[in-house]
Design goal:
The chain is mostly helical. Helix content is 46%, strand content 9%. It contains 20 helices and nine strands. It has a three-stranded antiparallel sheet. It has a two-stranded parallel ribbon with strand order 1-2. Strands 5-6 form a two-stranded antiparallel sheet. The mean pLDDT is 93. It binds one RNA strand through helix 4, strand 6, strand 7, helix 11 and helix 17.
Amino acid sequence: MADTKNIRVRIAPSPTGYPHIGTIYQALFDYSFAKKHNGVFFVRIEDTDRARLVEDAEERIYAALDWFGLTEQESPRKGGPFAPYRQSERLDIYKKYAEELIALGGAYYCFCTKERLEQLHQEQQAAKKPTMYDKFCRNLPVQEAKKRVESGESFVVRLKVPEHTDIVVRDEIRGEIHFKSDLIEDTVLVKADGYPTYHLASSVVDDHLMQTTHLVRGEEWLPSLPKHWIMYDYFGWEKPLFFHTPILRNPDKSKLSKRHGHTSVTWYQEEGFLPKAILNYLALMAWSHPEEKEIFSLDEFITYVDLKDLKPVAPIFDLEKLKWMNGEYIRQLSLEELKKLLNNFFKEDEVVMAVLNSSEIDLIIGLAQTRMKTIKDFKELVVAEEVVLSAEEEKVAKTLIEEFEKISDWNKETILAAMRVALKTHGVKGSMLYKILTGREHGLPLPESLEITGKEVALTRLKK
RNA sequence: GGCGCGUUCGUUCAGUGGCCUAGGACACUUGGUUUUCAGCCAGGAUAUCAGGGGUUCGAAUCCCCUACGCGCUACCA
């Protein structure tokens, strides 16, 4: 590359809950883009919201990244040249830059109480005006403000948004976007508890200090881009390139959320999805393969990906298609790989483990492989369910017992022959035999699986 | 309410002024293989490219308006 500047991208998750599939979606593009250009993908933990902090959330984020194979190069757990990577450990840095920004005339101390702000918002709402801070403290003389700060008065620091002007920002996916500065609030940069907000800490100070070159984040940040833009200009810093990825949506078109969709990485793990399949599907949410291919590996994605090609259209996260894709990936697995996944997935499940430990497991897996969309599906394929048979089904079962008992050489051909007799004498469909023997109307091919299970097991099952 | 972004089959994506009487995938569906269900193979249906105005010899592709959807509008990220 002609550009000698090293590419650096990051995800900046908040440890406020379980890892979100949206974080992985961001990480996928970051990781792949960094990998492609021999750059660095790093993780910064955004734990400035002390109220919503969740104890083991950070660990879970790392575990999720590892599970997907999107392991970072720099982070709190790995260290790196720009440590610390945890925002709660960088408070003095933000304080310093907040003061610098005030000195630069880009921010100011504000002493307005929450009560006053609340009342202000109510009044604005009643008057059907935008609910924005009224800049009450904006023109307080700096010396006076400093005195009040030193005397211990509670304060926040606010951004001084230029007045009566157009702020033109650039998103690399959408192009130039214009905002009227008077409609942009003097947002809080430093909270009363001394912690910075996202706008100061992440988007500007840390991304500058950590030399982020390409900033990939969700579209929900687009409305605050002008605030970040202004700060870069106040500081005189070079801006990263901004890419706002389309937001993932629920089938009802709303933003993918816990309420309506499956947002937790844990859920996908518990349902038996393959990380590679999820990644492949996620890539398709904002990007398309030059040859319109839908199934491709992460390596292939890396060779083709370019952040510039990301699309601005918010897609609906279609679980059905993900399941189909997951099935495709399961079919691509070697026997050994699938076996390993099954053993790991069902290690707590004694019933399934008994099957997995049987001597004929390879054959069973072979039969099951094309019938699984998720690893979890294996269980209902191999574990029979209890059923109450109807009168007709009882009769068919009886014939089946008789025919099975006649068999001396128990193999799939003789079993099939016996099944055919039962089918023919009662004029019923094959699915009934599946119901009688497995409790479900369909499943693994009966002759093959019964051969594996053995005559005794088949008969005990029938006689119950 | 204000601001911003978006709008091609049910869903997703291709398409960047003529190759589009709009193509692929999921889902749906017909047939074949067959002991069920899958899988696999071969077919099928579904889009006046949100609507309306322009620009142009020519527009899904460029411009404007409207409608609709979503996002943001916190001392959360």
